[in-house]
Hints:
Elements: H1 21-30, H2 39-42, H3 52-71, H4 75-82, H5 87-107, H6 114-121, H7 126-140, H8 144-149, H9 156-170, H10 172-177, H11 187-203, H12 208-215, H13 223-237, H14 242-252, H15 256-273, H16 278-287, H17 292-305, H18 315-325, H19 328-331
Helix pairs in contact: 3-4, 3-5, 5-7, 7-9, 9-11, 11-13, 13-15, 13-16, 14-16, 15-16, 15-17, 15-18
Amino acid sequence: MSDVRVGADLPGAAAPASASPARLVRRLFFRLRPDETSFVRRGFPSVGRPAQARLERIASTFVEGYHAAVDAPEPDGFIPRLEQIPGEFRGFAYEGAAMALGLLDLLTPWNRSRFSRYLERAPHHDYMLHVGLGWAWARLRSNVQKHLDRSHPDLRWLALDGYGFHDGFFHWERTLDRREPPRLRGYEARAFDQGLGRSLWFVEGADVRHVAARVGTFDPARQPDLWAGVGLACAYAGGVDDAGLQAIREAAGAFRPQLAQGVSFAVVARYKAQNPAEHTTRAAEFLCRRSFEDLGKSSTELFDRITGGDGAQPRYELWRQAIQRQFPAEVA
């Protein structure tokens, strides 16, 4: 998370003497500081809010998964460690591991198949893996268009979502306060904004009033995608009770279909990975008027039925629109 630094502080005790030279080199160059996920270190305005501890735990779980893959970059070496993490948080660990393998692939040109092997071993986490891959793209500020051309034609947009979350989380003063638009082309910027909306949930500590106010400072054309990201983070990460869900439904106003679409994405990710969470179930029931199982199954089947798409309206966007059309009458 933040900068990958040579000689970064290692959490806990020194590496065991049995560690291989390759592992020691990876630890030296790729380990992350143990306080990188601290809201105090990040300077978030949400410090001290009730959801801070939960959201920081999520961020630290991401780093736990990242370090697991740095230590043992073959799936059989780190997936058993990820599976020991409680299901509610496990997806974040899978996401962090994807970032680590994405970085290793980009920085070691003689071996660029780590992420693809990971995806083959954990296809049920494909959504979170692609989001994590986007973190690697963001960290290295590499050529996004080149990476998109080499990525899955549908799920690559989730990597742009991860890119947006990364920039909102680590460069929030630039991307959220100054609202600088991303240097991306066409639909890339919209996928980025969904991730940016997810980051708002963390930067503002799941405080609905502050989240809504922040979204309102952006250009109206960007607000629908930001609200979709808020819905995704609200449902996948959690942090509010039923009163908070009621408040976010009211705050979204005309953007309730986008909010519900984000919730649907969160449900699909957990439905495919078979790691449901109580707060995700409540968000589905409260914001979409659907059960977790029904929303996960129907949204997945809807994606499978969609065909076509082009550069301006990729299949991924057609799916988002189809989901949004299901909710106006229900959530208005």
